[in-house]
Request: fold
Amino acid sequence: AALEDQAYYARVREHIIAQRDVMAAWYAEQGWFCYESAANFPFVEPKNAAGESGPAVSESLFQYLTEHRVLVRHFPGHRLTQGFLRVSLGTESEMQRTREVMEAWQRLGV
Reply:
């Protein structure tokens, strides 16, 4: 029965798209590169307060997010992915918290 609830899936899909758009706009405001995605886990290249990106920057943000209980995926094992994080989309409040923690990291100037 749950698989047949098309209205539920439509609501979930709308929520994911809305959160993806909000986060994509926020990444752009920060000057971060984000691949366009139809999925619920955008691939993002963060920049620190100095505007730098790369493996050390993504590792720093990954560690900071982990310490603050915001879980994202980091792929340091390949040169094409080591400067990026995969950020899964959640609820509006979860994504607000994610942005707040990312902004706090940027204020540290690391």
Notes: The chain has three helices and four strands. The first helix runs from residue 6 to 30.
